[in-house]
Amino acid sequence: MRKFFEKLVEGGLLISGSVSSLTILLIVVFLFKEAGGLFNTPSTEEGYVLAVHNTNEVAKLSPEQLMDIFDGNITNWKEIGGNDVEILPFRLSDLTNYYSEEELGSEFQYVPQKISELIGKEPGIIAFFPEQYLLQEHFQGKVLPTQNITPSEFFGGTKWYPTATPAPIFGLIPLLLGTLLVSIGAIVLSLPFGLAVAIYMAEIANHRMRDFLKPIIELLAGIPSVVYGFFGLVVIVPLIQKTFDLPVGETAFAGSVVLAIMALPTIITVAEDAMRTTPRAMKEASLALGATQWQTIYKVIIPYSISGITSAVVLGIGRAIGETMAVLMVTGNAAVIPTSFFEPVRTIPATIAAELGEAPAGGAHYEALFLLGVVLFLITLLLSISVEYISSKRKI
Amino acid sequence: MIKIDAQNVDFYYGSFHALKNISMQIEANTSVAFIGPSGCGKSTFLRLFNRMNDLIPDTRLEGKIFIDGHNIYDKGVKVDTLRKDVGMVFQKPNPFPKTIFENVAYGLRVNGVKDKDYIEETVIKSLKQVVLWDEVKDKLKDSAFALSGGQQQRLCIARALAISPSILLMDEPTSALDPISTSKIEDLVHELKKDYTIVIVTHNMQQAARVSDKTGYFYLGELIEYGETRKIFTNPEKESTQNYITGRFG
Questions:
Q1: Can you tell me the ipTM of this complex?
Q2: Which of A101, A192, A323, A386 is the most buried (most CB within 10 A)?
Q3: What is the distance in angstroms between the Cα of B243 and the nearest Cα belonging to chain A?
Q4: Is the peptide bond before B37 cis (omega within 30 degrees of 0)?
Q5: What residue in B sits closest to A207 (Cα-Cα)?
Q6: What is the mean pLDDT of residues B22-46?
């Protein structure tokens, strides 16, 4: 009977173990599957076509060039390798500027003909319109071939305009730099402070002080991140704006400060635990040789627990890189390449959180956000692998 | 010459009365063994000589301990200076996570010695003193953890000797070692007592008999008997001592 019961428990443990690892694997597979679709997606919106005049020599346009054309930043075809002709951007809504409603027919049944006619007439035109209005026979223009989004456009792209028409632009660089800037700032701020507190708690504070501090720091870890964000928005952002006399306080620096506060409990507890594992014998040996307490701390305790301290640092970074809500609230969310700490930036997690709700499932934007998730996953994976490596490295 | 003079020492861990009115005089350049069953206070007493018990919170000392005529518990005494003169070897080998060379050099470095030649000279001298030099001279840059337990313990003794103390406290230095390493360390104690005053705590009766000039027997926080080792082991005055050394309890 007892044997049966033990077998049952064993089976239960096995099942829960495999179910949880399977779930994690499934999430990763899902993430990669959704993200991988991005490079099989046309760069222009699906169901739309781009057409130019027959004499136009330009055969390929990148999403960025398209955006510049439709925004009026590129005005002549020669700028992008064509003839010296003024560019005439055309969207469907512009049609009524050229033709009266009667000409288009009461049910808009003549729209395809008119578009075709217009393209045939204007040598500098580039027209962006739904596929259903493409004249099937005797089309007087040239339809540009659709091309897929390329990895180099994503990983090397310096602009993030996910809702631009005719072609959205998904450039990773500004988001990646924003994430790194905020995280590095957070680590630079929290590391000296966190290690100082860890050393104090592990080696200097007496029992009563430690018993008082430890729960407070652990409490700090339990505060929901949105509360930190709120605190940052109401207290830190105005403070930064005033102190540095900035037009806006929502900057990378504000994000770093909030993240630094959030990373502190992790850094403190992990580093402190590491330092407390220094054997008492080791400390006594140092003190017995006439070393002072400080000499013992920096010559014995820190070298001995260096791998634990490194883990603390990397875990702190991991927390900073993955943090979403608080950062979203205080960094201003401008997806541009940051040039200083005192500019709004946008991080990868904040982008995913802010945009996923408005990205249609299965579309390019949706897939691009998943790819951002993959990038984030790879960064944190790299961090955890380095923690493993450092902690397993044999101490001299 | 009296090196260590403990007068009416009482010691408390919180409310626990660990040492009861102990007085003892230890002469220079002799070796003294403390024996007694576990928890009798012999290690506690030993650790008073370099104020190692200061590290334990909630402890209290009454009485006086003089080393070279100075009360080491006077207010003006600097603990790190005291510990430079009173070296200590612990129960388990506890080298630092550093190279063999740096382990021995550690005491010099924390005491502000910068002269490289002097450090190297002293490290070599100390390693030779503990008869470890020939075994490690080719791997001074290796981790101290790569040594065997016995070698590590001799390294720890070398480390303590490098800052040239006048007293060497040994807290059960061989209890974690094999018989061969143990006998090496015992030989070492014989050698070292010419230049140092050695106090050694041991659970091993034969060891006490082999290495010490005088022996103190502790029981339940009291110093029951203290005298010439030969006399303690052959003709003790107290029955309790007799019982302990013949192995009737302990």
A1: 0.88
A2: A323
A3: 33
A4: no
A5: B57
A6: 91
